[in-house]
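Trying the structure run again after the queue cleared.
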Amino acid sequence: MGYYLIFCSYLTFYCILHSILADPFVLRDIYYKWWYRGFYVFQSLFLLIPAIYFYSKLPSEEFFHPGFAVKIFLRAVFAFALIFGIYTAKFYNNASFLGLEQIRQYLYKGTKEYDLHRELSMDGTLKYVRHPYYFSGLLLLWSRPLYIKDLVLNVVFTLYFIIGSINEERKLKNIFGKEYVDYCRNVPMLIPKFLNPYYIFRKLFKNNG
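Done. Tokens:
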């Protein structure tokens, strides 16, 4: 029980710290510095090491044992989420996301500050869901075979993805204003249009009306 408490507490700490360090309103003095994004990515990966260690110390007690048909379905969902996430990467500036572009700009042009959000992208998977990486992450989490320790991991990260989406949207509304508000009206937050009952029925009624 002790390791479960440590594991859950550390994951919660990790998610809270991750959210604070991703907030330009909290860290306005350093958030756009050329070195900050690289530092943010590095510390995010580095601080996962204790979480992996605590996870490895927990017993592999089965929580959910799916039958053959359900197992095949879950594997299909996992594969879909993986492909969706990889495809999504085409529509992001991954060099900037990882902090590499900022370092390059500083070394070659002396650029000391860099804004990640220069224009609002609505291409590719972003036409169907506002946070495609979070959507993929949720499917990848919940389509795996579940041990009790995975249930703890999944619940904490699911809450983080939801809260992280809300926090990200607060930031984007401040940056892009009405353009992002209009985008939010037409594209769902976490469940894509083609899987979202509200948008499916809305389209059906619109076509039949």
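The chain has a mean pLDDT of 90. Worth checking whether this holds up in the mutant runs.
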